[in-house]
Amino acid sequence: MPSRVKAVSMVDAEYLSFRYPDKTSDVLTNLTLRLTKGRTLITGASGSGKSTLFCLMNRLYPDNCDGIVTGRLHLFDRSYDTYEAGEVNRRVGTVFQDPDSQFVMQTVEEELIFTLENFAVARDEMMDRVTQMLEALQLTDYRHRNIHDLSGGEKQQVAVACALIGRPEWLLLDEPLAHLDPETAHYFVRWLDDIAETINIVVIEHRPYIWGDFFDRQVKLVNGRIDYDGPFIVRPDYVFSPIRTERGKEFLFHIPKCERKTFHLAASKMKVAKGDLIAVLGRNGSGKSTWLRSLAREYHEVGLVPQSPAHLFVTSDVTHELSYGHNRPIEDILMRLGLGSMRDHHPLSLSHGQKRRLAIGVMMLSNKRLIAFDEPTAGQDEVSLRALYDLMAERVRAGHTVLFVTHDLSFARIANTYYLMCDGNLSGPYDPSLWDDPGLLRSHGLLMEES
Amino acid sequence: MTFHEMNPTIKFLTVTCLMFGLAFMYNPWTPLVVFLGTLALQTLFSAVSWRRWGLFMIPFLLTALGTLWTSLVFGKQTSGDVMFKLFGNDVTDENVRLAATLSLRVLAFTALSLLFTLTTDPKRFVYSLMQQGKLSPKIAYSVFVGFRFFPILKNELMQLYETHALRGVRLETRLDHIRHAPKLIIPLLAGSIRQAERIAFSMEARGFTGEPRATYEVVAVTRNDFLLASLLFLLFGVSTWVGVR
Amino acid sequence: MLKSWKLKEIVLLSILSVVFAVVYLAFVHIGNLWAGLIGPIAYEWIFGIWFIVSIIAAYIIRRPGAAFLSEVLAATIEMMIGNAIGPRIILVGIIQGLGAEAAFALTGYRRYDLWVLMLAGFGAAVTSFAYTYVMGGLTALSPTYVATMFALRATSGMLIAGLGGKLLSDLLLRTGALEGYALARQGRIHG
User: Fold this and answer.
1) ipTM
2) pTM, two decimal places
3) How far away is chain B from the Cα of C190, in angstroms, using its nearest Cα?
4) Looking at the domain A11-230, which fold is it?
5) In sequence order, which residues have a C-beta less than 8 Å from that of residue A180 and are 6 or more positions away?
6) Looking at residue C35, what is its pLDDT?
7) Which residues contact A243 (CB under 8 A, 6 or more apart)?
8) Touching A: which chains, 3+ CB pairs < 8 A?
């Protein structure tokens, strides 16, 4: 042990490599990294090893995946393998990406108490801690709410509360904004900035621009190695150029109204032409997805690719999936989508990108004139966004119409026609000059103050 | 003193004991007395919606009827006076007695079960199992996860139906939905299994180790629990006495 | 026994139990419809359905106790989401789970091939039938009728639970969702 006094590092890795069992190559290779304090951003494409690194920091790995660690990995100045399960987690709080799979109990209060029980907090102290935490985070109104009924953004706030109530020194967040609309995401970042003044933070994020100047350090991983480690530099989000096409003959869609217990979707009309690339924008919960499903139900020529394309699949291998419901030849499309080597695989075993390509193949083969995507960019890294861009461009140029529902403002720039959704009311069409109308954008939750 | 407040583990054990006891009583009077007595106790010591009670009871009335005539038609040969013939079988008074016993037993079982189900908060039951029954917290909290997962599963199922309908699967009538259900089990399970792993990870990340723990929710054991349990055992005693006599 | 279990394996058990609790409940209603018409024998030929989670859990997780625990959890959750026979269903779960578990214990938890899975389905049928025999008062019925009931239940246990459980799990394996559980690892070792 070095005798000189130094700050305690949450993670201190030297020549750290990590490999999953049964795999031939390392996910992390010769990584050297020390995090002592501050707010660090970790970026990297899917498969770059950032999620693995994340799970090593809160010590979910290697235990939970039987992975093989080589090199040095110290957490708070002690080797990782000297910790009991759950021990590090008292000093490191974690918030995960998926708002739906990080809770155990039913109400917010019960969930907070669950965490306190884990940390063996005295019983008569619990309620005060819960009250204080909720007050400090301005979440008091949620105390007795059922977690299932909260929105994605609210769930992420509750997840932060659950992580912080254990009074950790560090807070780790894995793409906490992936499922939030820009307004909500922006609010969440400002809120976190306010409440987390004294705590050290590590965030994994594909698209750091929403975080503004939140960070002071950035670590970039490429193929399991550190590519950059230094001060955080604010960069603009990805830029996607608009896809331009010739417009063909117009036809009109009537989307009927849809009444649910808590939600009313007004009837709407949409003019569509061959070669149109339409973006439907709006806040989370504004009714975009409901509207999209109404459209697909009403018109058979609309092929819907849901947010998780896995929902679409009805057979147990790629070949059958493509030939389901018709007897047109599939070989050509199978090859064009690069799925030739996957023909015997189960559709659900494909990667996310492959699943989406398979879904598009399905739509193409069933002669859908309009391919409609529900939130296609959520949780996607730059490489897969580019792939999606190419796929859409190709479809539009081939004379299809492509429509997508999104709250991803950078990606939405590729469209040539826009509709806006607000509280169940669809308005439009707008042309790209919409981006120069701040009033309109703000009223639909699509504009953030520059920070 | 109500069954709602009664310690769920003690309630569970008492009700289970009574049901086991009933299984060894071969006279129609014991189950009848237990059935009526349970209703009486339920009226006295709980606030139960009888509408719900009735709704739950209907299928078991059917089962009781089914049991009645099965035991008459397929009853084993017994000695005794032949009372009447059914589908060519001689039905003795012993057969009738047995048939009545078995179908009344179904009713008594159901009444006891409903006494438990309608007055027990499932969450309190799990807490109590952890505190009085030494149930491992790993299991107890997994049950909570499962319970919470139920509405998520329902959502997932509805989405699958909806997207499959868009794929051209015929899903117009209720029967279509039922017929298509087996095809949904794989996607439903595959998605759920992936979620299970994520939930387990976040439990661990929040410091859950599965060690025995003190919980905020405390389910106590009081004198009233034993009083209510004694009342139920007393009922069984009385019913046995009536039956034997 | 639970010490060596990973939390994710127990949560998996619980989640499997929820899915199958729903399936079980659906079949209780189907069974009830029949039972009024043709008596308790209505349940026999579909009885294997109620053992299936044991076989699937044991086959995927391959640890002592998986068969037993999953069945008990499924019963508990079934009660929580609205099976009226409440406490009785838990008892039934315990008894069926023990029967299936016994088969795996017999092989020293080393074999998980089709025969053992079918044996587990048979085991569950045996213990659950013993329970029905006592609680349902089958002593009152003619031996031929009782034998028919048992034959139906045993066949159903072996085919629906044993064979069906294996087919379902193997299909699930192909979806890639079981990466990180014993079944996927074992599969790789044996080719």
Assistant:
1) 0.88
2) 0.89
3) 23
4) Rossmann fold (3.40.50)
5) A152, A153, A156, A188, A284
6) 65
7) A277, A389, A392, A393, A396, A397, A414, A415, A416
8) B, C
